Amino acid sequence: MNENLIKKISIIFLVITIIINVATYMYLPVKIGMHVNNNGTMDNYIPKMLFVLVTPVLIIAIWIFSFIYKASNKFKVIIVETVFFIANIWIIFSQLKI
Length: 98
Known about the structure:
Organism: Clostridium acidisoli DSM 12555
Number of strands: 2
Domain DUF1648: 12-60
Helix content: 55-70%
Transmembrane segments: 6-28, 49-69, 75-93
Strand content: 5-15%
Protein name: DUF1648 domain-containing protein
Pfam families: DUF1648
């Protein structure tokens, strides 16, 4: 994959993540459920401000790490960013109070 294309995809993931997190912030509960136990109840929570900041920071960290250490397969970087992006969207839309 072309390195410029990878940079563009990473930036697109980052921008969309930030937009979604900011747009849904006021509709999220005070604590975001992060883990469901065997009984189907949430048993691990984090504050919504921390959640809203974590995914963009992780995407930036992965992107910086991949370029500092010259990751040989940049496609793997896009896959990891995609997983974080999808997980972020899934968690947000499962927690919305509209």
